[in-house]
From TrEMBL:
Catalyzes the formation of methylglyoxal from dihydroxyacetone phosphate. Pfam families: MGS. It comes from Guptibacillus hwajinpoensis. GO terms for biological process: methylglyoxal biosynthetic process. This is Methylglyoxal synthase. Belongs to the methylglyoxal synthase family. Transmembrane segments: none annotated. The active site is at 60 (proton donor/acceptor). Keywords: Lyase. Substrate binds at residues 8, 12, 34-37, 54-55, 87.
């Protein structure tokens, strides 16, 4: 599965801790991230992550482009609802595309817990059917 990891600045510590806690579940999958989030996850967990641009510089849009190609299977996005973001339209567009393409999206740690356990149990394997894939990565 292709999984996107994204966190706003005040949520990055939480996302790094989350990725570390669930490293064994996340590790077999193809991980993608916005630039700064990706750097922290790589440095602090050792997971392999493909990094896009930083969010304010287009990273959310790059992940959105993968979703538009139906080439992203789930998004874990620890949003900061208490801080204005300069690229708010990009964030809204990313979330909208998840809804357009029925991509599982967790925007906080509570829902991310459910999503990552579902991933670990193979409950996202229906995405392989959507793609006509027969493997689990
Ligand atoms: O702003 C972001 C998502 O909207 C995250 O971007 P960074 O991971 O580059 O900080």
């Amino acid at each position: 599965m292709k999984i996107a990891l994204i966190a706003h600045d005040k949520k990055k510590d939480d996302l790094v801790r989350f990725a570390l806690a669930y490293k064994l579940i996340l590790d077999p999958h193809e991980l993608y991230a916005t630039g700064t989030t990706g750097k922290r996850v790589i440095d602090e967990t050792g997971l392999q992550v493909h990094r896009f641009q930083s969010g304010p510089l287009g990273g959310d849009q790059q992940i959105g482009a993968m979703i538009a190609e139906n080439d992203m299977d789930a998004v874990i996005f620890f949003r900061d609802p208490l801080t204005a973001q300069p690229h708010e339209p990009d964030i809204t567009a990313l979330i909208r595309l998840c809804d357009v393409y029925n991509i599982p999206l967790a925007t906080n740690m509570g829902s991310a817990e459910i999503l990552v356990h579902a991933l670990g149990r193979g409950e996202l394997d229906w995405r392989d059917i959507v793609h006509g894939r027969n493997n689990t990565t």
